[in-house]
Amino acid sequence: MRRTTTVGLFALAAVGFLIGLRPAESGEKGKLGAAPVEVREVLDKALAFLKANQGQDGSFSPSRAGPGVTGVVVAGLVRNGVSPKNPVVARGLAYLESTVQKDGGVYTTGLANYTTSIAVMAFKEANTGGKYDTIIKNGSDFLKGIQQGGDKGIASGGFGYTAKDRPDLSNTGFAVEALLAAGVGKDDPSIKNALKFLSNCQNLPGEHNEQAFAKKATKDDRGGFIYHPFDPDDSKHKTPEGGLRSLGGMTYGGLKSFLYAGVSKDDSRVKSAIGWVRNHYTLEENPGMKQAGLYYYYHTFAKAMDALGEDQFADAKGTKHDWRRELFDALQKRQLKNGSWINEGDKTFMESDPNLATAFALLSLSYCHAGKR
């Protein structure tokens, strides 16, 4: 069951934020994206909810994900302009610090890769004056230590929940974001090898992926990404043709990982992923999974679109989308009166936990500001 739990959790990616960027300070109605006053209204409601639901130790939902949800909350708030000195953020950071292990990882459960990656990105967002430099460096060293080695076949370069678990795209995407946030170079072997594994998760037959499922990809699935390339015959996403169905959250996660790592937009893998996105552009569901993991999908959608750098994105029909505005509208209409978000009945991604759904929503919200690049 751990396999479905985490896609879920973070199911959490990654948390991958474009580290170092901050919301624009200005923006007016009529411009692309949402105006600051609109974002602030949504943010204030969410902050009030989080303040009321934070544990005495500063954590959020620790029994489910250790420091994972807390890390997403902290990063989401800081990215939206909330000061690290704000009591909710400060207490969250203190809790994250309390879960740092001697090996450099940040974890309390078996989700060590997820929670360490998320914590590294949260600390990076809140880092001032080098306060968290050592934690960030040790965290990145820990992540490198649990990456699958070059003798693991199609698993080589991937990241699982721990060093002993089979890798998947979600875990790997989070690790790539965290390593880059920690200052690891794009040419570092850990990044290059991770990209090889991610290529093995793309429905794109050729030099980067020679697996049978990719060769059987339908026109509809070509260019998209799957969760992992193992045991395709047992996958619930197997197609009648014998391939594997491309999934929305995974495709945006794969695309942003390539772009973050400096893969050219002219690369066949990037071009094919963008083509899939054009054919499946939507904010009403997580393509391939319907409503499951909707808020996870929103945050990978936002990061990939931001990394792509197109203020208006044209779908396959040529319709141009102000994706920031459309994402904001999707989030705003789903926010509950108490300021939270929740995905009722979502057991796969665990977004039935309002702390987790709200954390993902905040990360997504940070990319909605008018004029933000």
Class of secondary structure makeup: mainly alpha
Fraction of residues in helix:
40-55%
- Secondary-structure element sequence? HHHHHHHHHHHHHEEHH
DSSP, total strands? 2
The profile of the biggest β sheet is: 2 strands, antiparallel
Number of helical segments?
15
Strand order of the largest sheet: 1-2
CATH topology group: Glycosyltransferase
Segments where pLDDT lies below 50 for 5+ residues?
1-30
Mean pLDDT: 92
The overall number of domains is 1
Dominant shape: globular
User: From the coordinates shown, what is the CATH architecture?
Assistant: Alpha/alpha barrel
- The fraction of residues in strands falls at under 5%
Termini separation (Å)?
Answer: 39 Å
Query: Which CATH class applies here?
Result: Mainly Alpha
Radius of gyration: 19 Å
Keyword list:
373 residues, two-stranded antiparallel ribbon, Glycosyltransferase, globular, mainly alpha, 15 helices
Your description of this structure?
It contains 15 helices and 2 strands. The protein is mainly α and 373 residues long. It has a single domain (2-365), classed as Alpha/alpha barrel (Glycosyltransferase). It has a two-stranded antiparallel sheet. Strand 1 (313-314) and strand 2 (320-321) form a beta hairpin. The longest helix has 18 residues, at 36-53. The N and C termini lie far apart (39 Å). Mean pLDDT is 92; it is low at 1-30.
Chain-wise SSE layout:
Blueprint: H1 2-9, H2 36-53, H3 62-65, H4 68-79, H5 87-98, H6 112-126, H7 133-146, H8 169-181, H9 189-199, H10 212-215, H11 248-260, H12 268-279, H13 294-308, E1 313-314, E2 320-321, H14 323-334, H15 354-365
Antiparallel strand pairs: 1-2
